[in-house]
Amino acid sequence: MTQETKSQTCPICGRVSEDLPVEHGKDYVIYRCSYCHGDFAQTAVHFDYRGEIYKTSGDFVRDSYKLDTLRSPEELFTNPVRRGFASNFLGAFPAKGKLLDVGCGVGTFAKLAEELGFEVYAFDPAEEAIKYAREKFRLKNTVVGTIDAIPPEWQNFDVITAFEVIEHLEKPCELVRRIYELLKPGGHFIVSVPNRDRLGAKLWGAAEWDAPPNHLTRWSKQVLIFFLANLGFTDVQIRMSLNRWSLSAFLPPRFNRRMTAGELQRLLCQGANQRGSLASSSWWKCVQKIGDGVAFVLRVVAGDIGKQYLANPLIAVAKKP
Predict the structure, then answer these.
(1) Cβ distance 231 to 280 under 8 Å?
(2) Is residue 128 within 8 Å of 48, Cβ to Cβ?
Protein backbone atom coordinates (compact mmCIF):
# COMPACT_ATOMS: atom_id res chain seq x y z
CA MET A 1 0.00 0.00 0.00
CA THR A 2 1.38 3.40 -0.97
CA GLN A 3 1.27 6.30 1.46
CA GLU A 4 -0.72 9.35 0.50
CA THR A 5 1.18 12.59 0.02
CA LYS A 6 -0.04 15.95 1.25
CA SER A 7 0.26 19.26 -0.57
CA GLN A 8 1.58 21.88 1.88
CA THR A 9 4.22 24.58 2.37
CA CYS A 10 7.57 23.35 3.67
CA PRO A 11 8.83 25.50 6.60
CA ILE A 12 12.43 24.77 5.58
CA CYS A 13 12.47 25.77 1.90
CA GLY A 14 9.17 27.68 1.74
CA ARG A 15 7.91 25.80 -1.30
CA VAL A 16 4.57 24.11 -1.78
CA SER A 17 5.13 20.45 -2.63
CA GLU A 18 3.62 17.00 -2.33
CA ASP A 19 5.11 15.77 0.93
CA LEU A 20 5.34 12.17 2.13
CA PRO A 21 4.67 11.19 5.77
CA VAL A 22 7.74 9.41 7.12
CA GLU A 23 6.83 9.04 10.81
CA HIS A 24 3.62 8.88 12.84
CA GLY A 25 3.83 9.65 16.57
CA LYS A 26 1.29 9.93 19.34
CA ASP A 27 0.59 13.63 18.76
CA TYR A 28 2.37 14.34 15.48
CA VAL A 29 3.12 13.40 11.90
CA ILE A 30 6.50 14.10 10.29
CA TYR A 31 6.57 14.82 6.55
CA ARG A 32 9.51 14.89 4.14
CA CYS A 33 9.50 17.74 1.65
CA SER A 34 9.60 16.47 -1.93
CA TYR A 35 11.67 19.50 -2.96
CA CYS A 36 14.40 20.05 -0.30
CA HIS A 37 14.00 16.64 1.42
CA GLY A 38 13.90 18.24 4.86
CA ASP A 39 11.65 16.74 7.54
CA PHE A 40 9.05 18.82 9.38
CA ALA A 41 6.35 18.02 11.92
CA GLN A 42 2.69 18.81 12.14
CA THR A 43 1.60 18.81 15.78
CA ALA A 44 -0.78 20.66 18.06
CA VAL A 45 1.50 20.21 21.11
CA HIS A 46 4.21 22.81 21.80
CA PHE A 47 6.65 23.82 24.54
CA ASP A 48 6.74 27.22 26.18
CA TYR A 49 10.45 27.97 25.95
CA ARG A 50 10.10 31.08 28.10
CA GLY A 51 10.33 28.98 31.24
CA GLU A 52 8.71 25.58 30.97
CA ILE A 53 11.84 23.67 30.00
CA TYR A 54 13.72 24.89 33.05
CA LYS A 55 11.23 23.36 35.47
CA THR A 56 11.84 20.04 37.18
CA SER A 57 8.96 17.98 35.91
CA GLY A 58 10.19 14.43 35.53
CA ASP A 59 10.10 14.88 31.75
CA PHE A 60 13.38 13.81 30.14
CA VAL A 61 13.41 16.50 27.46
CA ARG A 62 12.81 19.34 29.91
CA ASP A 63 15.11 17.94 32.59
CA SER A 64 18.04 17.66 30.17
CA TYR A 65 17.82 21.43 29.62
CA LYS A 66 17.88 22.09 33.34
CA LEU A 67 21.31 20.53 33.89
CA ASP A 68 23.31 23.66 33.01
CA THR A 69 21.32 25.88 35.38
CA LEU A 70 22.29 23.56 38.24
CA ARG A 71 26.01 23.48 37.47
CA SER A 72 28.49 26.03 38.75
CA PRO A 73 29.83 28.58 36.25
CA GLU A 74 33.34 27.26 36.92
CA GLU A 75 32.30 23.74 35.90
CA LEU A 76 30.69 25.01 32.71
CA PHE A 77 33.42 27.48 31.78
CA THR A 78 36.37 25.15 32.34
CA ASN A 79 34.84 22.13 30.57
CA PRO A 80 37.54 21.14 28.02
CA VAL A 81 35.02 19.94 25.43
CA ARG A 82 33.12 23.23 25.47
CA ARG A 83 36.29 25.33 25.45
CA GLY A 84 37.69 23.29 22.58
CA PHE A 85 34.47 23.75 20.65
CA ALA A 86 34.55 27.52 21.05
CA SER A 87 38.22 27.76 20.11
CA ASN A 88 37.70 25.55 17.07
CA PHE A 89 34.92 27.64 15.60
CA LEU A 90 35.92 31.14 16.72
CA GLY A 91 39.70 30.88 16.80
CA ALA A 92 39.79 30.72 13.00
CA PHE A 93 38.53 34.30 12.65
CA PRO A 94 41.62 36.57 12.39
CA ALA A 95 39.75 39.70 13.47
CA LYS A 96 37.44 39.76 16.45
CA GLY A 97 34.27 41.79 16.27
CA LYS A 98 30.62 41.74 17.31
CA LEU A 99 29.04 38.37 17.99
CA LEU A 100 25.37 37.57 18.60
CA ASP A 101 24.51 34.23 20.23
CA VAL A 102 20.92 33.24 19.39
CA GLY A 103 19.24 31.08 22.03
CA CYS A 104 22.26 31.40 24.30
CA GLY A 105 20.92 29.30 27.19
CA VAL A 106 22.86 30.09 30.36
CA GLY A 107 25.56 31.88 28.32
CA THR A 108 28.47 29.43 28.40
CA PHE A 109 29.40 29.82 24.73
CA ALA A 110 28.82 33.58 24.87
CA LYS A 111 31.23 33.87 27.81
CA LEU A 112 33.85 31.77 26.02
CA ALA A 113 33.48 34.02 22.96
CA GLU A 114 33.96 37.07 25.18
CA GLU A 115 37.16 35.53 26.54
CA LEU A 116 38.38 35.05 22.95
CA GLY A 117 38.03 38.77 22.31
CA PHE A 118 34.55 39.21 20.83
CA GLU A 119 32.07 41.93 21.78
CA VAL A 120 29.23 39.63 22.78
CA TYR A 121 25.46 40.02 22.60
CA ALA A 122 23.01 37.25 23.47
CA PHE A 123 19.35 36.42 24.00
CA ASP A 124 17.20 33.48 25.08
CA PRO A 125 13.45 33.10 25.65
CA ALA A 126 13.98 31.54 29.10
CA GLU A 127 14.20 34.18 31.82
CA GLU A 128 15.97 31.82 34.22
CA ALA A 129 18.70 31.17 31.66
CA ILE A 130 19.37 34.88 31.08
CA LYS A 131 19.37 35.48 34.82
CA TYR A 132 22.15 32.87 35.12
CA ALA A 133 24.08 34.47 32.24
CA ARG A 134 23.91 37.90 33.86
CA GLU A 135 24.61 36.88 37.46
CA LYS A 136 27.07 34.01 37.03
CA PHE A 137 28.88 34.93 33.81
CA ARG A 138 28.48 38.74 34.10
CA LEU A 139 27.27 39.04 30.52
CA LYS A 140 25.98 42.56 30.00
CA ASN A 141 24.36 42.63 26.56
CA THR A 142 21.60 40.10 27.15
CA VAL A 143 17.87 40.11 26.45
CA VAL A 144 15.03 37.80 27.48
CA GLY A 145 12.87 36.89 24.50
CA THR A 146 13.12 36.07 20.81
CA ILE A 147 15.02 37.83 18.06
CA ASP A 148 12.11 40.28 17.77
CA ALA A 149 12.87 41.51 21.31
CA ILE A 150 16.43 42.68 20.69
CA PRO A 151 17.16 46.44 20.67
CA PRO A 152 17.20 48.11 17.23
CA GLU A 153 20.85 49.12 17.68
CA TRP A 154 21.85 45.44 17.76
CA GLN A 155 22.95 45.01 14.13
CA ASN A 156 25.97 44.76 11.80
CA PHE A 157 27.36 41.66 13.48
CA ASP A 158 30.56 39.97 12.34
CA VAL A 159 29.44 36.56 13.62
CA ILE A 160 26.04 35.18 14.60
CA THR A 161 25.71 31.75 16.20
CA ALA A 162 22.64 29.57 16.71
CA PHE A 163 23.44 26.25 18.34
CA GLU A 164 20.60 23.73 18.62
CA VAL A 165 17.95 26.37 17.98
CA ILE A 166 16.30 26.16 14.57
CA GLU A 167 15.09 22.57 14.98
CA HIS A 168 12.79 23.83 17.77
CA LEU A 169 11.00 26.29 15.48
CA GLU A 170 7.90 25.89 13.34
CA LYS A 171 9.34 28.26 10.73
CA PRO A 172 13.16 28.21 10.90
CA CYS A 173 13.47 30.14 7.64
CA GLU A 174 11.92 33.24 9.25
CA LEU A 175 14.55 33.34 12.00
CA VAL A 176 17.47 32.79 9.63
CA ARG A 177 16.23 35.50 7.25
CA ARG A 178 16.34 37.90 10.20
CA ILE A 179 19.82 36.66 11.10
CA TYR A 180 20.94 37.35 7.52
CA GLU A 181 19.69 40.96 7.87
CA LEU A 182 21.62 41.47 11.13
CA LEU A 183 24.93 40.30 9.67
CA LYS A 184 27.25 42.80 8.03
CA PRO A 185 28.44 41.95 4.48
CA GLY A 186 31.17 39.37 4.81
CA GLY A 187 29.85 38.26 8.21
CA HIS A 188 29.55 34.61 9.18
CA PHE A 189 26.66 32.52 10.47
CA ILE A 190 27.47 29.39 12.51
CA VAL A 191 24.51 27.07 13.04
CA SER A 192 24.11 23.57 14.44
CA VAL A 193 21.28 21.04 14.21
CA PRO A 194 20.89 17.38 15.21
CA ASN A 195 22.03 15.05 12.45
CA ARG A 196 19.08 13.12 11.00
CA ASP A 197 21.44 10.63 9.37
CA ARG A 198 23.50 9.78 12.46
CA LEU A 199 24.07 6.06 12.83
CA GLY A 200 22.48 6.07 16.27
CA ALA A 201 19.15 7.13 14.76
CA LYS A 202 19.43 4.38 12.18
CA LEU A 203 20.21 1.81 14.88
CA TRP A 204 17.60 2.82 17.46
CA GLY A 205 15.19 5.09 15.63
CA ALA A 206 14.45 8.69 16.54
CA ALA A 207 15.20 9.48 20.18
CA GLU A 208 12.66 11.15 22.45
CA TRP A 209 14.60 14.40 22.47
CA ASP A 210 14.50 14.49 18.65
CA ALA A 211 10.71 14.26 18.38
CA PRO A 212 7.89 16.80 18.63
CA PRO A 213 7.06 18.91 20.50
CA ASN A 214 10.79 19.34 21.31
CA HIS A 215 12.13 19.21 17.74
CA LEU A 216 9.87 20.25 14.88
CA THR A 217 12.31 19.78 11.99
CA ARG A 218 15.02 17.24 11.13
CA TRP A 219 18.08 17.89 9.07
CA SER A 220 20.67 16.08 6.98
CA LYS A 221 23.95 17.49 5.71
CA GLN A 222 22.50 18.08 2.24
CA VAL A 223 19.32 19.70 3.60
CA LEU A 224 21.29 22.11 5.81
CA ILE A 225 23.54 23.18 2.91
CA PHE A 226 20.52 23.72 0.65
CA PHE A 227 18.65 25.65 3.36
CA LEU A 228 21.47 28.17 3.88
CA ALA A 229 22.23 28.60 0.18
CA ASN A 230 18.52 29.09 -0.52
CA LEU A 231 18.49 32.03 1.92
CA GLY A 232 21.44 33.74 0.24
CA PHE A 233 24.47 32.46 2.16
CA THR A 234 27.63 31.46 0.33
CA ASP A 235 30.70 29.35 1.12
CA VAL A 236 28.61 26.92 3.19
CA GLN A 237 30.83 24.39 4.92
CA ILE A 238 29.86 21.52 7.19
CA ARG A 239 32.35 21.15 10.03
CA MET A 240 33.06 18.08 12.15
CA SER A 241 32.17 18.30 15.84
CA LEU A 242 32.48 14.81 17.18
CA ASN A 243 32.79 14.24 20.93
CA ARG A 244 31.68 11.76 23.55
CA TRP A 245 28.15 13.19 23.50
CA SER A 246 28.00 12.41 19.80
CA LEU A 247 29.13 8.86 20.53
CA SER A 248 26.39 8.47 23.13
CA ALA A 249 23.94 8.45 20.22
CA PHE A 250 25.09 4.89 19.57
CA LEU A 251 23.81 3.79 22.98
CA PRO A 252 20.19 2.73 23.51
CA PRO A 253 17.94 5.76 24.22
CA ARG A 254 16.78 4.24 27.51
CA PHE A 255 20.39 4.13 28.76
CA ASN A 256 20.99 7.78 27.83
CA ARG A 257 17.75 8.75 29.54
CA ARG A 258 18.79 6.94 32.71
CA MET A 259 22.20 8.65 32.68
CA THR A 260 20.61 12.09 32.26
CA ALA A 261 18.16 11.39 35.08
CA GLY A 262 21.03 10.24 37.32
CA GLU A 263 23.08 13.36 36.60
CA LEU A 264 20.07 15.57 37.26
CA GLN A 265 19.38 13.84 40.55
CA ARG A 266 23.00 14.26 41.59
CA LEU A 267 22.90 18.00 40.90
CA LEU A 268 19.56 18.44 42.64
CA CYS A 269 20.92 16.65 45.73
CA GLN A 270 24.32 18.34 45.95
CA GLY A 271 26.03 17.36 49.16
CA ALA A 272 23.87 14.28 49.57
CA ASN A 273 25.26 10.78 49.43
CA GLN A 274 24.94 9.71 45.82
CA ARG A 275 26.83 6.43 46.04
CA GLY A 276 25.53 3.96 43.56
CA SER A 277 24.77 6.63 40.95
CA LEU A 278 26.45 5.60 37.71
CA ALA A 279 26.49 9.21 36.49
CA SER A 280 28.73 10.30 39.36
CA SER A 281 30.92 7.18 39.62
CA SER A 282 34.67 7.19 38.97
CA TRP A 283 34.11 4.30 36.58
CA TRP A 284 31.84 6.42 34.39
CA LYS A 285 34.31 9.33 34.41
CA CYS A 286 36.92 6.91 33.10
CA VAL A 287 34.52 5.83 30.34
CA GLN A 288 33.99 9.49 29.43
CA LYS A 289 37.73 10.06 29.06
CA ILE A 290 38.00 7.02 26.82
CA GLY A 291 35.07 8.40 24.81
CA ASP A 292 36.93 11.70 24.34
CA GLY A 293 39.92 9.79 22.98
CA VAL A 294 37.84 7.69 20.61
CA ALA A 295 36.00 10.80 19.38
CA PHE A 296 39.30 12.57 18.68
CA VAL A 297 40.63 9.66 16.62
CA LEU A 298 37.39 9.37 14.65
CA ARG A 299 37.33 13.11 14.02
CA VAL A 300 40.81 12.89 12.48
CA VAL A 301 40.22 9.86 10.25
CA ALA A 302 36.50 9.89 9.46
CA GLY A 303 36.47 12.68 6.86
CA ASP A 304 33.29 13.29 4.91
CA ILE A 305 31.73 9.99 6.00
CA GLY A 306 32.09 11.13 9.59
CA LYS A 307 30.37 14.43 8.86
CA GLN A 308 27.41 12.60 7.39
CA TYR A 309 26.95 9.63 9.73
CA LEU A 310 28.99 10.09 12.91
CA ALA A 311 28.75 13.77 13.76
CA ASN A 312 25.92 14.93 15.98
CA PRO A 313 25.17 17.75 15.73
CA LEU A 314 25.83 18.94 12.20
CA ILE A 315 27.55 22.34 12.27
CA ALA A 316 27.57 24.69 9.29
CA VAL A 317 29.62 27.85 8.77
CA ALA A 318 28.21 30.16 6.08
CA LYS A 319 29.03 33.65 4.80
CA LYS A 320 26.86 36.63 3.90
CA PRO A 321 28.25 37.95 0.58
Answers:
(1) no
(2) no
> What CA–CA distance (Å, rounded) separates 306 from 313?
11
DSSP secondary structure string for all residues of 272-320:
S--TT-GGG-HHHHHHHHHHHHHHHHHHHH-HHHIIIII-SSEEEEEE-
Question: What DSSP string runs through 162-229?
Answer: EES-GGG-S-HHHHHHHHHHHEEEEEEEEEEE-BTT-HHHHHH-S-GGGSTTT--EEB-HHHHHHHHH
The most confident of the ranges 82-91, 147-156, 206-215 is: 147-156
Note the pTM of the prediction, 2 decimals.
Answer: 0.85
Q: Where are the domains of the chain?
A: 46-319
Strands 157-163 vs 183-193: parallel, antiparallel or unpaired? parallel
Cβ atoms 62, 55 nearer than 8 A: yes
On the question of a cis peptide bond just before residue 213, with omega within 30 degrees of 0, the verdict is yes
Torsion of CA 233, 235, 236, 239, to 10 degrees: -140
Q: Could you tell me which CATH number the domain at 46-319 has?
A: 3.40.50.150
pLDDT digits (tens, 9 = 90+) for 127-136: 888 999 999 9
d(CA 294, CA 271): 32
What local confidence, expressed as pLDDT, does residue 3 receive?
Answer: 61
